[in-house]
Amino acid sequence: MPNRDPEYRRLLALALQDDVERQKGIRVSRVITGDPSQRLAALTFDDGPHGEKTGDLLTVLRRLRVPATFFVVGKMSLRYPNLIERIVLDGHELGNHTYNHYRLPQIPLSEVAGELNRTRDVLTGIVGAPTRLFRPPGGEYNDRIQKIIAQEGYTNMLWTDDPADYKLGRTASRITELVMRDLTPGAIILLHSGLPETTKAVPEFVARIRAQGYTFVTCSELIQRGNGLLHLQNLPAHISRTAAS
Ligand SMILES: [Zn+2]
Questions:
Q1: How many Å lie between the centroid of ligand 1 and the Cα of residue 134?
Q2: 198-238 pLDDT tens trace
Q3: Which residue of the set 18, 35, 46, 121 is catalytic?
Q4: What's the confidence (pLDDT) of residue 145?
Q5: How far is the centre of ligand 1, averaged over its atoms, from the C-alpha of 21 (Å)?
Q6: Nearest Cα to 147, choosing from 156, 158, 138?
Q7: pLDDT of residue 229
Q8: Banded pLDDT at 40 (limits 50, 70, 90)
Q9: Ligand 1 geometric centre to CA of 47 (Å)
Q10: Where are the domains of the chain?
Q11: Which CATH architecture has domain 6-244?
Q12: How many CA atoms lie within 13 A of 77 on its CB side?
């Protein structure tokens, strides 16, 4: 059950205020990278919350003072409302990652908006305000789905850097190696919540990214401080590849 203590609710609303205000100013419907001329990086964690394992990740992020963006699944959020609240209270940002985590091109087009709206309602019910960030499961969408994402008021947040941390046998050191390999200014790094090897890798790659002069930001900060929507043809090859897949 969500904590109904008035002081707790006040702190939660306060923590959410900056994100909500910043998101109001976002005018792009799709983001494939931050501004490549700025050493900013956004860590994103998809698919949770996953109970204790997401709790462990939040503890690591808090210790390192790294803000991140959590693209959460609606049905998982219902199971772990306290983790949704903790994400916000710890200064992270929430994103919508559908209700059921279906690959959107594989369900009827008429059900796509419902997948977004159900999660919007779940998150609003827990923390009191909706998010305007969205990421499609598997990064899979088409023009018609993109239109629905925009119509529902969301920014489709893709990524530039994908170490495929969910792959069987991925070790923390390999995740770090792959994150660093594809790191570019304006990075949006795709990771998953609830994977112990990813959580183990976080302190190492955070230190290495910071050593290169980067600052970590949430997705809406990245958009606000950068140009938002950029054209695929102007991007390095590996970015075009991920964004197009
Ligand atoms: Zn996912």
A1: 11
A2: 999 999 999 999 999 999 999 999 998 886 555 444 444 44
A3: 46
A4: 96
A5: 26
A6: 156
A7: 54
A8: very high
A9: 5
A10: 6-244
A11: Alpha-Beta Barrel (3.20)
A12: 30
